[in-house]
Amino acid sequence: MPTLLWFRRDLRLHDLPALLEAADGDQEVLACYVLDPRLKQSGGPRRLQYLYDSLRELRDGLDGRLLVVEGNPVDRIPALVKKTKATSVHVSGDYLDFGKRRDDAVRKALGDVPLEESGSPYLVSPGRVTKDDGTPYKVFTPFYAAWKAHGWRAPARTTAKSARWIDPADVGGGVDIPRGDAELDHPAGEAAARKAWKKFVNSALEDYADDRDRPDHEGTSRMSAHLKFGTIHPRTMAADLGGGKGAQAYLRELAFRDFYATVVHAWPDSTWWNWNKNFDRIEVDEDKDAEKRFETWKAGKTGFPIVDAGMRQLAETGFMHNRVRMITASFLVKDLHLPWQWGARWFLEQLTDGDMASNQHGWQWAAGCGTDAAPYFRVFNPTTQGNKFDPDGAYVKRWVPECGGDDYPEPMVDHAAERLEALRRYEGVR
């Protein structure tokens, strides 16, 4: 009897445990993807473009044997099960709140047909690494030690040849994959992900620990969007990491990704609400003048070169260097005194790699209200940060060519004064 392999955040054919389970016993497998209309409401144009391009590549990798349907998975997956007489549905586990609620609803709608979870988008699935008393970690450093001690499996040996695929034409009801109208600054899909990773390992991994904070260098892997959509699994990447300084620095970043997913798994409302509830009392600006300041920040016209360079890179490419993400976030919450949620929402709209767990808790780190948050009294000086991490001004010159000229705006705030104001506000919730 056939089975269903329902793709979600795992748009690849290599290292896919759910594929092994779906094909176990030599069953025929229907590969399917459900275009949920809710994705269009929350995805952002570049993330949708990455999705569409990756789906086309996945379909090509299966010689066209990917059925793409549109609608609510709660309706569409049971309908496909009924049409194909499938005995089970196989997925990679989803541990964020939206995905968990969706899967619970689908599982209920399937009745006696099981929804089988195999693997997840993470090296270690959320909930696996806990403190001795079974509670989740709130601090990264002990989590990291326990995470490394726990370890992870070797990559699963899967390819397009791992299953006998059902022809979607025999099932019917499919829709065309949308073309999209956004431009990506690097190609999507599994082949691009594997090629980019190999290039990084061969050319930049050794120096990663030193170069990763320099936006003027090509020192980062640019794998975040590929990880977001699962066109490569972090297991595949971790298998290439040895004991060198650069490799261990990179492994630590993969651990942070798992940590933030674990935090959101344990505290689902922390995607939009302060993880540290004491910060619910902090004074933030939300009036008309605050909205004008927000628009100036979004446009990259703050008069602080490193901030403006980051915001323009984001708007033009859908990517921002991680060090600059921290600088621009600190500026929004501590120089402009705006709610971190405003910035988080804008990032999710613009970023190709926008990930609900990493983005939201990165913002809460900057705002001081999350786990492992920067000390409340730490306020990034954008000028000092720019001088330190872009010492020759190459990054700024690329994105803010008018910097230093008559057309470049004066700083929109006095950083020293706003730092003191931020500290005053933070004292109220300390």
TrEMBL record:
GO terms of biological process kind: nucleobase-containing compound metabolic process; response to light stimulus; response to stress
Cofactor note text: Binds 1 FAD per subunit.
Domain Photolyase/cryptochrome alpha/beta: 1-123
Keyword check for NAD: no
Keywords annotated in UniProt: Chromophore, FAD, Flavoprotein
Positions with a binding annotation for FAD: 208, 220-224, 250, 253-260, 353-355
Cofactor(s) essential for the protein: FAD
Pfam families per record: DNA_photolyase, FAD_binding_7
Gene Ontology MF: a single term: deoxyribodipyrimidine photo-lyase activity
Keyword Flavoprotein found: yes
Protein family according to the UniProt entry: Belongs to the DNA photolyase family.
Listed name of the protein: Deoxyribodipyrimidine photo-lyase
Lineage: Bacteria, Bacillati, Actinomycetota, Actinomycetes, Mycobacteriales
